[in-house]
């Protein structure tokens, strides 16, 4: 009787954490830029040039910095949200794995996905931004602050 009870407990625990089993704790995140070949850095992970794909923990939220000589750098915030497949795996825990599976999935982040994915940056050339600053329209003639419409 005791062996049967232990076997049932172990079997039910092994069925838990459906999202962790089906989705894993890491995901591929793709980085692209316009123009291509920008360097991308973030929290210890670096792409030599874009486009590139990195394996990143599902729970990780970070800021990706894109840079290239002659262009302004751009930061893109990458966040997490519950994925459709992750929600289905989490729901499977309710039916099969119970609280143990739900706790494992929540702690590993296996129900999450990164967004945006792919992460894209459109870099602005330094020369273009200087030209825009020079082309700011300047008011012509004297400016009257007390001007009021007359009838």
Automatic annotation (TrEMBL):
Residues 130-151 are annotated as: Disordered. GO terms for molecular function: translation initiation factor activity. Keywords: Initiation factor, Protein biosynthesis, Signal. Transmembrane segments: none annotated. Residues 1-19 form the signal peptide. Residues 142-151 have a biased composition (Basic and acidic residues). Coiled coil: none annotated. This is Translation initiation factor 2. It comes from Microvirga alba.
């Amino acid at each position: 009787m005791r062996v049967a009870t232990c076997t049932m407990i172990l079997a039910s625990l092994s069925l838990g954490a459906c999202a962790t089993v089906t989705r894993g704790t890491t995901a591929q995140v793709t980085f692209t830029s316009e123009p291509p070949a920008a360097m991308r850095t973030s929290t210890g992970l670096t792409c030599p040039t874009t486009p590139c794909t990195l394996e990143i923990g599902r729970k990780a939220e970070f800021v990706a910095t894109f840079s290239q000589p002659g262009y302004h750098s751009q930061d893109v915030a990458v966040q997490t949200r519950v994925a459709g497949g992750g929600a289905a795996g989490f729901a499977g825990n309710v039916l099969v794995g119970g609280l143990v599976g739900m706790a494992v999935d929540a702690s590993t982040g296996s129900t999450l996905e990164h967004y945006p994915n792919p992460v894209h940056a459109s870099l602005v050339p330094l020369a273009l931004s200087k030209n825009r600053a020079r082309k700011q329209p300047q008011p012509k003639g004297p400016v009257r602050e007390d001007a009021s419409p007359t009838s």
